[in-house]
Amino acid sequence: IIIVAGLGGIGLDTSRELVKRDLKNLVILDRIDNPAAIAELKAINPKVTVSFYPYDVTTPLSETTKLLKTIFAQLKTVDVLINGAGILDDHQIERTIAVNFTGLVNTTTAILDFWDKRKGGPGGVICNIGSVTGFNAIYQVPVYSASKAAVVSFTQSIAKLAHITGVTAFTVNPGITKTTLVHKFNSWLDVEPRVAEKLDEHPTQTTLACAQNFVKAIELNKNGAIWKLDLGTLEAIEWT
């Protein structure tokens, strides 16, 4: 498994849950360099080889492809790609779209070079992290919400192309989760200066509860699924 943004918030708890499983390799790509977290993951299950590569999802597609060449040369096979990077700040319009959507499109596009059955590839599984805002917008952060709707739509298309590419895909869409993402953030054009405080008034789930259901969704591996991960539950969403 390759996980993008596997060292922060939901990503780190997901990495912890993944290494408890019967994995051979967990490859973490992240802007965060956290040797202590890597050491902790290795200690949880010494049977799993945990490796880390510094990576920024806003890097050009060519750089992403170059990094994946390095990883595939090392591992030979990769079964799952998890796209987990995300930011929440509607003041940073271009960066929000770049991190939440464009970067995810690029990593997906890059890995198709290695997986696409039309090129003799073995296929693979893509798990994209969306958000419940992707189908139920928080209107005070329309840029963030729209970027997550784009993730859901893009992933649905990838799933429907599976018969051509051999690559299946699904989204996991967390509800409000206790992460640094929601502690303090800006609304679009400051339409709601207290947006973070107001969001905090709603029921939230822990990153651990979210991560546990996240891994359940990966294990279920249902092509085209839109999973809602909210308040410690895992629910399939019907959305057209």
UniProtKB/TrEMBL annotation:
CDD domains listed in its UniProt record: ADH_SDR_c_like
GO biological process, one term: alcohol metabolic process
Coiled coil region boundaries: none
InterPro entries on file: ADH_Drosophila-type, NAD(P)-bd_dom_sf, Sc_DH/Rdtase_CS, SDR_fam
Keyword annotations of the record: NAD, Oxidoreductase
Reactions mediated catalytically: a secondary alcohol + NAD(+) = a ketone + NADH + H(+); a primary alcohol + NAD(+) = an aldehyde + NADH + H(+)
EC number assigned by the record: 1.1.1.1
One of the record's GO molecular function terms: alcohol dehydrogenase (NAD+) activity
Annotated GO CC locations: cytoplasm
Taxonomy, superkingdom: Eukaryota
SUPFAM superfamilies: NAD(P)-binding Rossmann-fold domains
Family statement drawn from the similarity comment of this UniProt entry: Belongs to the short-chain dehydrogenases/reductases (SDR) family.
Subunit structure comment from the entry: Homodimer.
Protein name: Alcohol dehydrogenase
Taxonomy of the source species: Eukaryota, Metazoa, Ecdysozoa, Arthropoda, Hexapoda
